[in-house]
Specification:
By secondary structure, this protein is of the alpha+beta class. The protein has a domain at about 1-70 and about 105-180 and about 270-355: FAD/NAD(P)-binding domain (3-Layer(bba) Sandwich). The chain has eleven helices and 19 strands. The longest helix is centred in the C-terminal third of the chain and has 28 residues, at about 325-350. The radius of gyration is 21 Å and the shape is globular. The relative contact order is 0.17. The mean pLDDT is about 95. Bound molecules: 8-demethyl-8-dimethylamino-flavin-adenine-dinucleotide and P-hydroxybenzoic acid. 8-demethyl-8-dimethylamino-flavin-adenine-dinucleotide binds next to helix 1, strand 9 and helix 8.
Length: about 400
């Protein structure tokens, strides 16, 4: 039987960042990750980091490659009705911007640091259950290298994503779930071609939503709204490029550079919140507690914000014996979570075409986009939400 101060289930961005922040605060932890290292490092997901997330990664010691290779973006482009409108983040938010640096790279950097100088990070260690959440010795039962093991802890943090087991530690009478699914999915592709745009493009079109993003100056990341149940095999490369062309089209000539597509996948869009984010000595962080549709680029950033709040709370407990921040954890995080839930819902429902949508509803979407394009106040509301607030300022 192993013992640690903080048992962390899940070695995704939230679990790894938490382990790093705790290590820096002199608090020991063990991370249990069900997958192998290669799988975790290759999993294609988010790409946009808020300033607060960049700051947290630097504080965790993971800023070096990020500062060298990350691309600072000062805005995004909205396309609708054949027009393009730029949202200028620094001008609208008093100087804030975002960074393009892929989640795969964040995860690689954190894993290398943790294996180099941190506490144990066990791959292929699958947690089955958390026991004793309401005792002072919660336990995690897991399988590692074919053997059943138990980790006893002072505290357990579930960073085990949407399908994890940690949230089962919340008794039924305590746990509340809020959720919404959307009547469409995204087809995401990676292409070995330099992006044809300097900033991300979010496009509303009569054919559905499209997003132009990137992973580096030579790799494009693109998304198309597609029907639920879409098989990526039904989307040969030419069909994808033709559809992107049609959805990004402007009244003036514009060319989307094409290149070899190296990965294709379909992802569902969903909103979900589990409350509270703590029960006894078990805490939930990141996707284990909340999911947002990716349209607002908030998933990874919310996960980082949770663990920054939690690491500060554990440091306070260690340094002063006060559990004040720990006791406030769930309420502190949920304020930011619900703001991001609303923003992600707003971006999703304003930019996508619901299959059952009436022409009246389409006109409402276009009116809302027109409002953002013509009113500094409306644009600032979008920019503030997208660029994000410092962690703690919303507490
Ligand atoms: P993660 O990244 O899901 O990590 C959870 C980790 O826990 C492990 N795990 C377990 N380990 C041990 N025992 C168990 N029983 C376990 N059960 C699970 C898993 O293997 C995994 O390594 O959650 P975390 O750390 O909270 O990070 C959150 C972010 O990953 C997430 O919010 C974003 O990536 C969301 N997201 C996207 N966000 C964006 O902003 N833009 C995107 O383009 C974008 N694409 C995505 C996404 C999420 C996706 N998922 C979860 C379906 C694409 C996908 C496919
Ligand atoms: C991405 O680059 O994967 C990405 C960027 C912005 C989003 C969603 C995904 O809103």
């Amino acid at each position: 039987m192993r013992h640690t101060t903080v048992g962390i289930i899940g070695g995704g961005p939230s679990g790894l960042l938490l382990a790093r922040l705790l290590h820096r605060a002199g608090i020991d932890s063990v991370v249990l990750e069900s997958r192998d290292r290669t799988y975790v490092e290759q999993r294609q997901r988010a790409g946009i980091l808020e300033q607060a997330t960049v700051d947290a990664l630097r504080a965790a010691g993971a800023g070096e490659r990020l500062d060298r290779e990350g691309l600072v973006h000062h805005g995004i482009e909205l396309r609708f009705d054949g027009r393009a409108h730029r949202i200028d983040f620094p001008a609208l938010t008093g100087g804030r911007s975002v960074m393009v640096y892929a989640q795969t790279e964040v995860v690689k950097d954190l894993i290398a640091l943790q294996l180099g100088e941190g506490g144990p990070l066990l791959f292929e260690a699958q947690a089955h259950a958390v026991e004793g959440a309401d005792t002072d010795r919660p336990r995690v039962h897991y399988t590692h290298q074919g053997r059943e093991q138990t980790l006893t802890c002072e505290y357990v943090v579930g960073c085990d994503g949407f399908h994890g087991v940690a949230k089962d530690a919340l008794p039924e009478g305590v746990r509340r779930s809020y959720e919404r699914s959307y009547p469409y999915s995204w087809l995401g592709v990676l292409a070995d071609v330099a992006p044809s745009y300097d900033e991300l493009i979010y496009a509303h079109s009569p054919r559905g939503f499209a997003l132009g993003s990137l992973r580096s100056p030579s790799v494009s990341r693109l998304y198309l709204q597609v029907p639920i149940g879409t098989d990526p095999a039904d989307w040969p490369d030419e069909r994808i490029w033709d559809e992107l062309d049609a959805r990004f089209a402007l009244g003036t000539p514009w060319t989307l550079r094409r290149g070899p597509i190296t990965a294709k996948s379909v992802l569902p869009l969903r909103s979900h919140v589990t409350e509270p984010m703590r029960y006894g000595r078990v805490f939930l962080a990141g996707d284990a507690a909340h999911i947002v549709p990716p349209t607002g680029a908030k998933g990874l950033n919310l996960a980082a914000a949770d663990v920054v709040v939690l690491a500060r709370a554990f440091a306070q407990l260690k340094d002063s014996g006060s559990a004040e921040l720990l006791d406030a954890y769930s309420a502190t995080c949920l304020r930011r979570v619900w703001r991001a839930e609303h923003f992600s819902y707003f971006m999703t429902s304003t930019l996508h075409t619901d299959p059952g949508q009436s022409p009246f509803e389409t006109r409402l979407q276009l009116s809302q986009l027109e409002r953002i394009a013509s009113s500094g106040h409306a644009a600032a509301e979008l920019a503030e939400n997208y660029a994000g607030l410092p962690i703690g300022s919303d507490a």
